[in-house]
What we know:
Number of strands: 10
Strand content: 15-25%
Largest sheet: 10 strands, mixed
Amino acid sequence: MPRSLKPKKNAIIPVFKKFIRPITKILPYTPCLKSRGNRPLKMTFEDQLYALIFFHLEGHSSARELIQTLKEDDYARCHIAPENGISRSSFSEAINERGLEQLIYVFQQLQKEAAKILPNRHPRLGELISIDGSLIDAVLSMVWADYRKSSKKAKLHLGFNINHGIPQKLFLTNGKGDERPFVQQILEPGQTGVMDRGYQQHQIFDTLQQEKKHFVCRIKANTIKTCLEKYKTDPDSIIFYDAKVLLGNPSQQQTQTPLRLVAYRVGRKKYWIATDRFDLTAEDIALVYKLRWDIEKFFAWWKRHLHVYHLIARSQYGLMVQILGGLITYLLLAIYCHEEYGERVSIKRVRSLRNKINNEIRLLKVLDNDAPDIISQQNIRLYASP
């Protein structure tokens, strides 16, 4: 049974209400966040989630800036902040110690909802999941974020659904964390993992085939190849090699299960791609690997425009909370941009959303000043329409 939500003090402005609508359907079923002692929570999970979304949507750069906004901005104080306000220490405690289970649930459910709503751009190629890692600059006090003697970094391991253009699964480690063990955890049976050379490991290729999980992975050009069967290639195509092979030295670490090796040339650069997808053409394999760049573009956009890596947490738990907040915000943006404009997420639409919210806040302030004859609630609804 869904649990009831604590209503905000005033009605949320129309555009922001429309933006967060997908999670309002999920929140009643979210595991309840309980206080660890006898004292009531200073920040409910709903408060925490809204604050994280507000932080990323507005592009804040620090926890200090967010707390100041929650105290001084009329809209943030009434609709985002806890009813009795929140101190910086209480906010830090909440982010670093609470809400992870609930955020994981919201992210998982919202990701499933987004996959239903957003168009499948590559149905012919199967379900493609690009897998990659991204380093996050940490501070020296974050002792868990082991990287080098003079620097600290964390690493986000992410599966990105290429078909729908959205994040799917994530794991967080220190900066030295090996990326390859997470491939099996990110992929589901039937999905195709699309990966760069750093994920090449012949044992993983065998295991993925045993688990009915597919892969398209670039490998090093000097990898030893034992050709079992060579396929015909078109001399006018970019493809210059297509064969069933075993990879690796027969005396050690050679693949036990045959796989397909496709090689193509772009300009002077050659790409060698290992895969178990015999159902696709060699040109399709080259296209699938090219689509791997979608995750690179996602990381670049996400970090630059939502300020996801501007730390508001120091613990590994808290950083995971912050990252999930950023991913949830991106999923909401993906749904909003598709439903409102039929487009993918862009900074143009994010700026438009921010401007609409700010304009509606100004209009509500006029209403609060007893000027209904100047602007009516109907005017606000009309103004909010795209």
